[in-house]
Amino acid sequence: MDYQLDLDWPDFLQRYWQKRPVVLKRGFKHFVDPISPDELAGLAMEPEVDSRLVSHQNGKWQVSHGPFESYDHLGESNWSLLVQAVDHWHEASAALMRPFRFLPDWRIDDLMISFSVPGGGVGPHFDQYDVFIIQGTGRRRWRVGDKVPMKQHCPHPDLLQVEPFDAIIDEEMEPGDILYIPPGFPHEGYSLENAVNYSVGFRAPSGRELISGFADYVLAHELGSHRFSDPAVQGRDCPATILPQEIAGIRQMMLDVINQPDHFEQWFGEFISQSRHELDIAPPEPPYQPDEIYDALQQGDTLTRLGGLRVLRIGDTVFVNGEQIESVHQQALNSLAHHSVVRQEDFADALDDPSFLAQLAALVNSGYWFFGDE
Ligand code: SIN
Ligand code: CO
């Protein structure tokens, strides 16, 4: 299914992106759910899939984590099943993220899908990331409040909520409606009937994650071996004192480690092209020989990218799931980065180069691309 999003992107970016929430009425016209509630419930029974059940009764909240063995104990109201990164496990659902690729791939995270019965929801809360919440089957009332400093509390150890808030958006969403919420705006979805919601979530690294990720790279590549030196060390009244210029020197030393553009780019490409959620990797058995890949593509077979695999470009370098891919065949690399399905003509003459064909075979044999349509 090819989802067509009816949105004026430049206008949306200027007025709403990271600024304020908005309902995009009928963002998807004639919306058809890519997955059924039964299929979603089935996914939440798989051990690799990250899922939770949230319920409440008389103001008391309960959270349990998948994999689930049965749903028999659930009543007809006040619960919601939430499944993370469904795009990694369900190709048809992954198609729902593609219309959002006006925004850069590196900022997009995953597709979370929820199924709620009447009264179901996770309660009032805010998130750290931008999200587009698409209404699928059913109607759900969504309320969004203004971004003001708010105290968070935990009605259950696994649930972070905020106090009730005044709504700046209060809308009963219908299939195909989209609610965009920037980080920090409190919101709550309250189901009026059985309802499915699709959340296209974004990713925004924190300074802490960046420093920690860069530190790992520095260690792995044995960078930063240069030591502090002070040929012009100064005396001081009290030997216990560290002088401001010494602090400045230390700070500069650390900045110098970061300030190596080639390493910095390579680190960031590796770092940001890693998925935050498990991938459904199933390497082909037996592995393909490069000439088999060549023949299949010549015959018109297509290669499909594994759902959730991150393929990103910095300049002429492409990063796939944390690894740098180098090649002189820029057009072929660009095709791999740009399209979720690639075919022979996307590779131009790169397929005639045995070294490129070997790289492509390695990617297929890693389970990152597979033959067949979605
Ligand atoms: C949902 O219940 O579908 C979305 C939960 C959220 O607001 O993050
Ligand atoms: Co939320």
Automatic annotation (TrEMBL):
Q: Which Gene3D superfamilies match?
A: 50S ribosomal protein L16 arginine hydroxylase, Chain A, Domain 2, Cupin
The record ties this protein, via InterPro entries, to:
JmjC_dom (IPR003347), NO66-like (IPR039994), ROXA-like_wH (IPR046799)
Domain JmjC intervals: 92-219
Which segments cross the bilayer? Answer: none
Keyword list (alphabetical) reads: Dioxygenase, Iron, Metal-binding, Oxidoreductase, Ribonucleoprotein, Ribosomal protein
Matching PROSITE patterns, A to Z?
A: JMJC
GO function terms (MF aspect): 2-oxoglutarate-dependent dioxygenase activity; metal ion binding
Pfam families assigned: JmjC_2, WHD_ROXA
Entry's Gene Ontology cellular component terms: ribosome
Cofactor(s) in the UniProt record: Fe(2+)
Signal as UniProt keyword = no
**Identification of the protein by name:** 50S ribosomal protein L16 arginine hydroxylase
Q: What is the lineage of its organism?
A: Bacteria, Pseudomonadati, Pseudomonadota, Gammaproteobacteria, Enterobacterales
